Amino acid sequence: MSHAWIQNLAFLAVLLALAFPLGAYMAKVLEGEWTFLHPVLGPVERGLYRLMGVRSQEDMGWKAYAWSITLIKLVGLGAVFLLMKTQAALPLNPEGMGNVATDLSINTAVSFITNTNWQTYSGESTLSYLTQMLGLAVQNFLSAATGIAVLTAFIRGLTRRSAAGLGNAWVDLVRSTLYILLPLSFVFALFLVSQGVIQNFSAYVRTSGGQVLAMGPAASQIAIKMLGTNGGGFFGVNGAHPFENSTPLSNFAQTLSLLLIPAGLCASFGRMVKDRRQGWALLAAMGAIFVLALTVCTQAELRGNPRLSSAAATQAATLSQASGNMEGKEVRFGAGGSALWATATTAASNGSVNAMLDSFTPLGGLVPMLLMQLGEVVFGGVGSGLYGMLMFVLVGVFISGLMVGRTPEYLGKKVEAFDMKMASLAILLPCAAVLIGSAVTVLTPAATASVSNPGPHGFSQILYAWSSAANNNGSSFGGLAANTPFYNYGLATAMLLGRFGVIWPVMAMAGSLVQKKHTPEGLGTLPTHTPLFVGVLIGVVLLVGALTFIPALALGPIAEHLSMH
Amino acid sequence: MNLQLRPALMSFLAFSLLTGVAYPLAITGLAKLLFPHQAEGSLIRKDGRVIGSEWIGQSFSAPGEFWGRPSATLDAAGKPLPYNAANSGASNLAPSNPVLWGAVQERVAVLRAADPLATGPVPVDLVTASGSGLDPHISPAAAEFQIPRVARARGLEAGRLRALVAAHTEPPQFGILGEPRVNVLKLNLALAAQR
C-alpha cells in the first residue's frame, strides 16, 4: 500500500481538527462578537466604517445587499481591466511586461472578481508585479469576502423571524476580510516563505549558465489564493511551480488551506443557527462525497497509465520510486499528493493545480470534472460552497416533505414555492451554462481548433473548460488553447452567470425566508441533522449531478477510459 | 434609492490599500527579515555568481551528469526550451494521446543508447515530463538507474556514487508527506566537487 493513503487520512484528520476551532472563531466574527484580535483590529474596523460612510447598525434588505455586493465587484472589474491595459506605463514592472490584449484582460478581470481565477495567460510572462498584487490579489480577498458575506446574509434569513433586514453588506465584507482572511493569509504567507516560496520585487535572475529565473511577490498572493478558494497562480503552472509550492510540507499545508475555511464555515453555521448538529450533518454529507471522490482519484493515479507499461517504463511502486501516472506531475508530490490536491481543489471552488489535470488518467480526471459539475458544494468555495449546499438541503427537505405529505420546513422556516424556484435557479443556471456552452463550442470550428488532444479526450477538454468557468473553479485541462476571443468572451459570460446567477437567487430567497414566522418543531417535522437526512442530501446532490452530466461524461472521460482498457 | 456608490468606491479603495499594498509589503519586509534566503529564491552562488536555484531544475545531458526529468517548457517564440524558468509549462498530453506514448518510447531509447548495459525497467519519472517543466527532483530509483553510466563517464566507482546519491536522498517529509526524492542540481554540484 502506498503511503499516499496514509497522507490522505492525515489530511482528513488535520482538516477536521482545525475546522471546528476555526468555525467557532468565524461564527463570533460574523455575529460581531468580541474576539482576541479586536484589541488590535477593532480601531481599524471602526476607521474603515467612517471612511466608507457606513453606519454599522444599518440593516439592508435583500436587494440592497445583493446590489452592494454586485457594485463593488463591478468597481473591481473596471480596476483590474484598467491595470492590465496600462501596466506597461505603471511601476513595479521590472521585466517590462506590455499591456494585455482586450479580450484576455476582460476574461481575466471577470475571472478574478467571480472567484474563478480561470487563467489563459502565464503570470511570469504576461503580468507586472503591480497587476498581480494590486489587481488580482485584492480580488482574491474581495471575492472570498463576498462569498462569506452572502452566506452570512442567508444564515440571517434562516435565523431572523418576521424581519426584513439581512444585515449590512459592507460590515460583513469588512469583518470577513479583516478578522478572517487577512490574519490567516499573513501567517500562512510567512510559513510559505519559510518553505521556499519566493517573496521579492527583484528583476528576473540570470544565472551564469544562462537560465532566467522568474521572481516576484508570490507568497503573499499564494496564501490568499489558497485560503480564499481563488486558485489563480502567480506562475503559469500554478502550484506545480517549485517557487510557488516548494516542499511536500508546503504542498500539504496548501491543500489543507484550500478546504479550511469552507469546512470551518459548516461549524460556524451550526453555531449561528443555534443547533450545532445542523453543521455536523452538512459536514458529514460533504465529507462522505469527498472521501468517495478522493478514493477513486487516488486509486486511478497510483495505478498509472496502462499504455506506458508497454513502453518499458515501470510505474510500479517501490520504496524508492514515485509510482503511477507521472506525466505532468512533480516528483516531490507524487501521484498521491497530486490526486489529493486535484480532489480538494475541485471540491472547493479553488481551481489551483499542483499537477496537470489534462494528463491525468481518464478516471482520475473525471473526478475533478464531476466535483465541479455537482456545483462545488462538497466544501465548495469560501461561503459559496455552503450556500450552494443549502440550496440542495432545501431541495432535499422539499422532496422529503412531498414524500410524507407535510409542509416542508427547514430550521423552523416553511419552504414554499418561491423558495423552491430560487433554489432551482441557483442549481440549474450553472448546469445550463456548462451544457449549452459545450454544445456551442463543439459546433464552432474555430473553437474546436483549440483542442490539443485527439479522440474523446478532446471533448473532455471542452467540457472541462465550461464546467470550470460556470462553477467558478478555474482549473483546466490546460492543453486547450483557450486564449482566443471565443473562449475569453464565452467563458467570461459563463463565469458571470455562475457567480451572480447564483448570488441573486440565493439573496432573493434569503429575503423571502427572513420575513417568515418561526414554525415550532412538531411531530411532522423532518429532522435535518440525522443520518437519514444526510443520506437524502447526498442522494439529491449526486442525482442532480448524474442526471445532468452523465451523458456528456460518457462522451468524454468514460469513453476515453474504455478505449484504453 | 440609495445607490451605495460612496461605500462601494471608498471600500474598494480601502481594501486595495490594505490587501493590495500594505499586506504584500508587510510580508515582503518580514520575509526579508526572517527568511532572506528563501524569499530571494534559494539561490546557489559560486564565486559570487548565481549558478541556479535550489528549487529550479536545470537541463543536464552530459553522460557524466545525472539527468533530470524531461521538461516541456517553451521559449518566448513557442519553441522547445527545456527548463525555461521564465515560462513554466507542461506537455498537457492526454494519457490516451499516441504522441505521449511515442515520446516516452523515444526517451527510453535515448536512455538505453546512453547506457546499453542498463537493461532494467526505466523509472517512469525519468521518461515523463513534469508538471512545471522545472522539477528539481528525480526519484532515488531514477538516480540509481543512471549510476553505471555516470560512473563509467567519470571513471568513478559505482559504490562511491551510490553513497553520494544516498546522501542526497530525502525521504517523505515526516515519513508520510510527498515522495522520496533526489535534488539533481545539488547532486551534480556534489559530483563535480568529487575528485
Features:
heterodimer, A: 565 residues, mainly alpha, two-stranded antiparallel sheet, 2% strand, globular, B: 195 residues, 2 domains, 3-stranded antiparallel β-sheet, two-stranded antiparallel ribbon, extended
Task: Explain this structure.
The complex is a heterodimer of chains A (565) and B (195). Chain A is mostly helical. Helix content of chain A is 64%, strand content 2%. Chain A has one domain (3-564). Chain A contains 19 helices and 5 strands. In chain A, the strands form 2 sheets. Chain A has a two-stranded antiparallel sheet with strand order 1-2. A two-stranded antiparallel ribbon of chain A has the order 4-5. In chain A, strand 4 and strand 5 (413-414) form a beta hairpin. Chain B folds into 2 domains: 1-40; 42-192, no CATH class. In chain B, helix 4 runs antiparallel to helix 5. Chain B has 6 helices and 6 strands. The radius of gyration of chain B is 22 Å and the shape is extended. In chain B, the strands form 2 sheets. Chain B has a 3-stranded antiparallel beta sheet. Chain B has a two-stranded antiparallel sheet with strand order 1-2. The interface between A and B is large, with 131 and 102 residues. Strand 3 (313-314) of chain A pairs parallel with strand 3 (122-123) of chain B.
Give the amount of beta strand of chain B, in percent.
5-15%
- Portion of residues within helices of chain A: 55-70%
Report on the biggest sheet of chain B.
3 strands, antiparallel
| Spatial gap, N to C terminus of chain B | 82 Å
Strand order, sheet with most strands of chain A:
1-2
Radius of gyration of chain A: 23 Å
Low-confidence runs of chain B (pLDDT<50, min 5 residues)?
none
- On the 0-100 scale, what is the average pLDDT of chain B? 94
The rough form of chain B would be described as: extended
Q: Could you say which overall geometry of chain A the principal axes of the C-alpha atoms support?
A: globular
Number of domains of chain A: 1
Oligomer: heterodimer
For the record, give the distance between the C-alpha atoms at the N and C termini of chain A, rounded to a whole number: 23 Å
Order of helical and strand elements of chain A:
HHHHHHHEEHHHHEHHHEEHHHHH
Estimated structural class of chain A: mainly alpha
Largest sheet of chain A: 2 strands, antiparallel
Strand content range of chain A: under 5%
